[in-house]
């Protein structure tokens, strides 16, 4: 696998489709789950899918903007791409400059290669299983902060249940909280040391496939709320608890399991 070929495919789509349409979106629709979808999501997915198929015709494809039946059918595939063509569409439609393209190649039920591209900052995060993670080809490492009370967390309260939300609302559990509206960049920033943990009640596979590999290769520890790895079985969604290092992750697990 040539990581640069795939990076070029992603960057080309972002620079030729996503960026030129920023501030010009007029046709905004909503999916059954209430999430936003635009013609840019659809056009970006099509462009990347066709380019990947041309370069790697033997690898299957799953995209966020496919039907659930099509997505489920890919879970039994030996190898497939998993794409979120525009993670943070709500931000994009509101002209908030926080969004990214997220792509993973999944083989035998686990992500093997991953790319997250932020076109606003021209930052490309990449990882290959067992070879570490990079930002614009420079090695990155997650934070070594070991105390949860000193940590900044990316928390999506909207998708936590009542007891989980209570846990993460507890006084002095952590230092500060953010929700930037894009799972992909939260994963990428965790990997780059720009935050210390992620807590999310249910991300889709295309939300965490690339980001979880990049974060793990940078030193982070990943699980669901029951301490199982989200790839213990291949599924379309999973709760996420990700810590920048084992100490932060263990404190997160202990806190959530006390509820």
How is this fold's topology laid out?
Elements: H1 3-21, E1 28-30, E2 36-38, H2 39-55, E3 60-63, H3 68-74, E4 79-87, H4 89-93, E5 100-107, E6 110-118, E7 123-128, E8 133-135, E9 138-139, E10 152-156, H5 162-168, E11 176-178, H6 183-191, E12 197-204, H7 205-217, E13 221-223, E14 237-243, H8 246-257
Parallel strand pairs: 3-4, 10-11, 10-12
Antiparallel strand pairs: 1-2, 4-5, 5-6, 6-7, 7-8, 8-9, 12-14, 13-14
Helix pairs in contact: 1-2, 6-7
Question: How would you explain this protein's 3D organization?
Answer:
The protein is α+β, with helices and mostly antiparallel strands and 259 residues long. It folds into 2 domains: 3-139, Fructose-1,6-Bisphosphatase, subunit A, domain 1 (Fructose-1,6-Bisphosphatase, Chain A, domain 1), CATH 3.30.540; 148-257, D-Maltodextrin-Binding Protein, domain 2 (3-Layer(aba) Sandwich), CATH 3.40.190. 34% of the residues lie in helices and 28% in strands. The protein is built from 8 helices and 14 strands. The strands form 3 sheets. The chain has a 7-stranded mixed sheet, sandwiched between helices. A 5-stranded mixed sheet has the order 11-10-12-14-13, sandwiched between helices. Strands 1-2 form a two-stranded antiparallel ribbon. Helix 1 packs antiparallel against helix 2 (39-55) and helix 6 (183-191) runs parallel beside helix 7. The longest helix is centred in the N-terminal third of the chain and has 19 residues, at 3-21. The radius of gyration is 17 Å and the shape is globular. The N and C termini lie far apart (44 Å). The model has no long low-confidence stretch (mean pLDDT 94).
């Amino acid at each position: 696998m040539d990581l640069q070929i795939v990076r070029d495919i992603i960057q080309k789509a972002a620079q030729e489709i996503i960026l030129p349409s920023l501030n010009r979106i007029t046709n905004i629709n909503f999916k059954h789950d209430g999430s936003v979808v635009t013609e840019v999501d659809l056009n970006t997915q099509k462009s990347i899918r066709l380019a990947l198929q041309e370069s790697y015709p033997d690898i299957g494809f799953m995209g966020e903007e496919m039907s659930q039946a099509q997505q489920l059918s890919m879970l039994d595939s030996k190898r497939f791409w998993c794409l979120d063509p525009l993670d943070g569409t709500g931000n994009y439609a509101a002209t908030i400059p926080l969004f990214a393209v997220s792509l993973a190649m999944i083989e035998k039920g686990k992500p093997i290669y991953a790319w997250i591209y932020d076109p606003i900052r021209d930052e490309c995060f990449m990882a290959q299983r067992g070879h570490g993670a990079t930002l614009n080809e420079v090695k990155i490492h997650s934070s070594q902060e070991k105390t949860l009370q000193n940590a900044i967390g990316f928390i999506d309260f909207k998708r936590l249940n009542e007891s989980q939300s209570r846990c993460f609302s507890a006084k002095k559990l952590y230092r500060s909280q953010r929700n930037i509206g894009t799972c992909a960049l939260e994963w990428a920033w965790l990997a780059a040391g720009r935050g210390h943990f992620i807590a999310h009640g249910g991300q889709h596979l295309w939300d965490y496939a690339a980001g979880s590999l990049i974060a793990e290769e940078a030193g982070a520890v990943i699980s669901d709320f029951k301490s199982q790895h989200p790839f213990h079985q291949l599924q379309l969604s999973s709760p996420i608890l990700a810590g920048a290092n084992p100490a932060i992750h263990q404190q997160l697990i202990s806190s959530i399991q006390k509820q």
